[in-house]
């Protein structure tokens, strides 16, 4: 088996004009950027556009990368800066609050879901879309801290670099996000507490009826390979009975998306 080139070697070659090296970098990190974007915005196409913007920025700034941090951390920092850019924030939909989200779920009528393969796919779509909807209730910086620190297991030191704060600052930012998500899900979601009445299988048909989900255009249950947990480098070793761990596992069981769009990006950039 050939030895995979490390990122710094690829960056050096790409800066010297090696298109194959640049192709490998884009292919290697496109999906990671997209999986952050897919959890920052609700619309699939918007996530693709954001990912392309970040990848183009990555390419044009390759000569500024040094070995002081990992290339993945450097790309994540670029992704975070893009999302927190004031101009970019103005172009996005207003933030949804947990109270608004809670009220919206109350409007969805309960009904029974069948056991067909189509129903199973719909159930997965509801589960992922609803939990991503909860992320939208966090502020942009909290959402990013939760996605990177809690779902993708970025450590506090790396998180501090990405957010340009000290490790304590990153821990506090992530902790607030974790607490907000845990409080909402602990008091609402049947996946977290069986005594809660809100269940994905009961809400699925209502999601379709209200236009929240289009069964002919599934966006959260396609174009993926494996789960987030399989892609994260280190998983937190804590008791499964801890509510935070159950919530974390729920998010880490989300699909890790691998959209074919990256090959169109490579073509547009004349890299394949």
Task: Walk me through what this model shows.
The chain has 272 residues and is an all-alpha fold. It is 62% helix and 3% strand. The chain has helices spanning 7-15, 19-40, 44-60, 71-84, 86-90, 98-106, 117-135, 140-151, 156-163, 167-188, 200-209, 228-231, 243-252, 261-268, and strands at residues 224-227, 255-257. A two-stranded antiparallel ribbon has the order 1-2. Helix 1 packs across helix 2 and helix 8 (140-151) packs across helix 10 (167-188). The longest helix has 22 residues, at 19-40. The two termini are 23 Å apart.
Radius of gyration, rounded? Answer: 19 Å
Tell me the β content: under 5%
The total beta strand count reads: 2
The domain tally reads 1
Summarize the amount of helix as a percent range: 55-70%
Structural class: mainly alpha
- Distance between the first and last residues' Cα: 23 Å
Give the biggest sheet: 2 strands, antiparallel
Q: Order of SSEs, N→C? A: HHHHHHHHHHHEHHEH
The average pLDDT is 85
* Overall geometric form: globular
Low-pLDDT ranges: 233-241
- Describe the strand arrangement of the main beta sheet, using strand numbers: 1-2
User: Helical segment tally?
Assistant: 14
């Amino acid at each position: 088996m050939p030895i995979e080139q490390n990122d710094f070697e690829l960056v050096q070659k790409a800066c010297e004009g090696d298109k194959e090296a640049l192709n490998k970098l884009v292919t290697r990190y496109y999906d990671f950027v997209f999986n952050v974007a897919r959890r920052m915005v609700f619309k699939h196409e918007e996530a693709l556009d954001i990912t392309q913007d970040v990848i183009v920025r990555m390419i044009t700034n390759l000569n500024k990368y040094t070995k002081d941090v990992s290339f993945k951390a450097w790309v994540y920092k670029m992704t975070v800066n893009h999302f927190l850019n004031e101009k970019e924030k103005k172009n996005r939909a207003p933030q949804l609050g947990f109270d608004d989200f809670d009220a919206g779920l109350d409007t969805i009528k309960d009904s029974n879901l069948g056991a067909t393969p189509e129903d199973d796919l719909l159930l997965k779509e509801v589960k992922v879309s609803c939990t991503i909807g909860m992320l939208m209730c966090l502020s942009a910086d909290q959402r990013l801290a939760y996605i990177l620190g809690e779902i993708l297991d970025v450590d506090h030191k790396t998180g501090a670099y990405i957010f340009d704060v000290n490790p304590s600052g990153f821990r506090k930012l992530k902790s607030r996000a974790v607490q907000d998500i845990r409080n909402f899900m602990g008091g609402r979601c049947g996946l977290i507490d069986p005594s809660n009445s809100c269940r994905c299988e009961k809400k699925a048909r209502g999601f379709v009826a209200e236009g929240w989900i289009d069964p002919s255009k599934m966006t959260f249950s396609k174009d993926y390979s494996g789960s987030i947990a399989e892609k994260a480098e280190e998983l937190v070793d804590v008791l499964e009975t801890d509510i935070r761990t159950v919530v974390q596992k729920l998010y880490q069981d989300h699909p890790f998306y691998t959209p074919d769009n990256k090959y169109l990006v490579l073509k547009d950039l004349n890299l394949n």
